[in-house]
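### Sample
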Amino acid sequence: MSRHHPTLYFDDGSLTLKASDGTLYNVYRHHLIMQSDFFNGMLTLPIPNHPTVPLTGSTKDFLEKARAAGVDGTSDETAVSLPEKFTAMECERFLEFIFNTRGWTAKTPPLEDLCAVLKTCHFFAVEAGIDYAIHHLQDHAKLDAALRFKLGCDYHLPDWIKQAFDELMTVSIDKLTPEDENLLGWAAYRALARAQAEVWDHRATLAVCPPDVLHSNWCNNPGYCTSEWEKSWVSLSGVLGALIKEELPGSEIHDKLETYSGGGMTRDCHRRTCNSLKETAEAKSRLKKEEDIIDNAVEALINGLR
C-alpha cells in the first residue's frame, strides 16, 4: 500500500519517488540535480517520447506539460521507483540528508543512519553526503573493526581497511562472532587467520632466538656478557615476555630496546648491542617483520578489490 511520507512529501514538490515499501516522496527536482551527479545525469536528459516537455524554464511550466504527457515522476501514479537494494529507511535517511528535514548538526548521529547515508550517497554520487558520513563514522564509538573493514571495502577506503585489519589482528580468530565473519567475508577471514598464524610463529621464533651481542672494545668477559644477554632476552621480564605474554609487536620492542635489562652484561655491551639492532637493515627487518606480514596481507586484500 502506497502512502505519503509525513515530512518528505512536499505540496510544491516537482519529483515523486517511491521506496521499496511503497512510501511516496514528493521532493524538489532541481535540488536533487544540484546535489547528486546521478540525478543530474538522469533528470537533465531529454525525456523519451516527450520532446515538447521543457527541461529548462520554470518548474510550474515543466510540471504542467510533464503531467499532461504522463512523464514519470510527476504524480503518485507515475512515481519513479528508487532501487530495490535500498530499504525504506535508507531512502528516508538519504532524502532527509539532501533536504535537511532532520536538522543535521555536528552531534554524532546513530551508526545505522550514517551507514544508510554513506550507502545511498555513494550510489547516487552525493559527495557532501559521503564526506558527512565518513567524518562522523571515523571515530564513532559503535563502529567495530569488522564493520569498518566492510565499509572500507564497499566504499573504497583503504585507510579504513588497514585500520580495521590492524585492530582485528589483536583479536583471536576464534573470538570472532558469526556476524564478524559475515562482514569480513571468506577472503578476509582467511587472510586474517593466516596473518595471525605467521605473526605468532615469528614472535615465537624471535622470542627464543636472541640476536648476537656486539661487545664493546673494553669488554673483559664476552662469554659472560653473551650469557647474561641471552638469559635476559628469554625471560618473562625481557623480550620473550614482551612478545609472548604482553603480546607487543616487534616494532614496539624495536623502539624501546634499551628499556629491557641486559642482566649482568656491561653497560657498553648492552648499549652497542641495542644500537646495532636498531641500525642494521637485517636486524630492523627481523624486529619489524610483523609489520610486513600485516601490510602484505592488507595490500593483497585491497588489490583484490580493484
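The beta strands are 3-9, 15-18, 23-27, 80-81. This sample (BTB domain-containing protein) is used throughout the tutorial notebook.
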